[in-house]
């Protein structure tokens, strides 16, 4: 389970960080540079990122639902709160808070994409999302 989750989470993290990150190397920063250079390529990549988000977010909502997303967000928020109280994370630095938000989004998507695997390991039960029905 660990490796499968890490691969899915890494893919979600890559999607999020390729879209935007405070370091300045992202799609958002590339587009902010102006549309005078390769506007067609920027639109194409933007559409590909949009499609990836639709796939990831739809899979997340279908697997853990809105309540599950809320629970994962609550757990991560509580963890961040603990880190802030322990003095490990500073809320004064907007860059750190942006990184935490981006990582949080990727973890939510990673959990959503991996939920069937996690649930199967915890419960021993298989999930079947879609059952094809044949019409006679």
Automatic annotation (TrEMBL):
Keyword entries, A-Z: Membrane, Transmembrane, Transmembrane helix
Transmembrane segments: 40-57, 64-84, 96-118
Superkingdom: Bacteria
Pfam families: DUF6524 (PF20134)
UniProt protein name: Uncharacterized protein
């Amino acid at each position: 389970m660990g490796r499968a989750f890490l691969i899915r989470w890494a893919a979600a993290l890559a999607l999020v960080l390729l879209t935007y990150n405070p370091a300045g190397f992202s799609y958002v920063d590339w587009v902010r540079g102006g549309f005078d250079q390769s506007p067609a390529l920027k639109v194409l990549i933007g559409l590909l990122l949009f499609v990836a988000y639709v796939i990831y977010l739809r899979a997340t909502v279908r697997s853990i639902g809105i309540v599950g997303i809320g629970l994962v967000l609550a757990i991560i928020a509580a963890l961040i709160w603990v880190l802030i109280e322990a003095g490990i994370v500073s809320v004064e630095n907007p860059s750190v808070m942006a990184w935490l938000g981006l990582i949080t989004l990727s973890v939510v998507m990673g959990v959503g994409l991996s939920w069937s695997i996690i649930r199967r390991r915890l419960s021993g039960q298989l999930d079947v999302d879609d059952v094809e029905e044949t019409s006679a």
